[in-house]
From TrEMBL:
Localization: Cell membrane
PANTHER family named in the record: DIACYLGLYCEROL KINASE (PTHR34299)
Active-site residues (renumbered): 69 (proton acceptor)
Cofactor: Mg(2+)
Membrane topology: Multi-pass membrane protein
InterPro entries: DAGK, DAGK_sf, UDPK
The keyword Transmembrane is annotated on this UniProt entry: yes
Protein name in UniProt: Diacylglycerol kinase
Annotated positions binding ATP: 76, 85-87, 94-95
Pfam families: DAGK_prokar
Taxonomic source organism: Acidihalobacter prosperus
Binding site residues for substrate: 69
Primary residence: membrane
Length: 121
């Protein structure tokens, strides 16, 4: 088996990913807001006994927000490392990356509202 496919190497790689996520939660206020909202939404889903299809949509919507936030954070880190000084293009890159998080969050909000409206409407 190639060394990079060995379970130990894959586990180490997953450890790096968890370290990145833990750092994101510690350093990014937005990520902590996502964590609170994710917990609330999952609680609401459990309370209203969503079906498998509704859970699938909700999980995908939540995952999309987390992926967008992680990419936004990675882009911010890279930009700050490569070009710490002020630059209009860095600002634009950060604004667009933050826009991706906003789009994902609005999509997740729409999914949540539609699912809960279906439950209570
Ligand atoms: N080096 C830079 N050059 C130009 N504009 C910048 C630069 N750094 C930050 N900005 C501007 O300030 C905004 C906030 O950037 P910052 O790196 O502080 O991210 P943040 O406060 O964590 O934002 P977010 O909440 O969107 O993740 C950016 O979206 C951008 O408009």
């Amino acid at each position: 088996m190639p060394p990079d496919l060995r379970p130990r190497a894959r586990l180490r790689s997953m450890g790096h990913a968890w370290r990145g996520l833990r750092w994101m939660l510690r350093s990014q206020a937005n990520a902590r807001v996502h964590l609170i909202l994710t917990t609330l939404v999952i609680g609401a889903g459990l309370a209203t006994r969503l079906d498998a299809c509704e859970w699938t949509l909700l999980v995908l919507a939540i995952a999309l927000v987390w992926v967008a936030e992680a990419m936004n954070t990675a882009i911010e880190c890279l930009a700050d490392a490569l070009h710490p000084e002020h630059h209009p293009l860095i600002g634009r890159a950060k604004d667009v990356a933050a826009g991706a998080v906003l789009l994902a969050a609005l999509g997740a909000l729409a999914v949540g509202v539609l699912i809960l409206l279906g439950r209570f409407g």
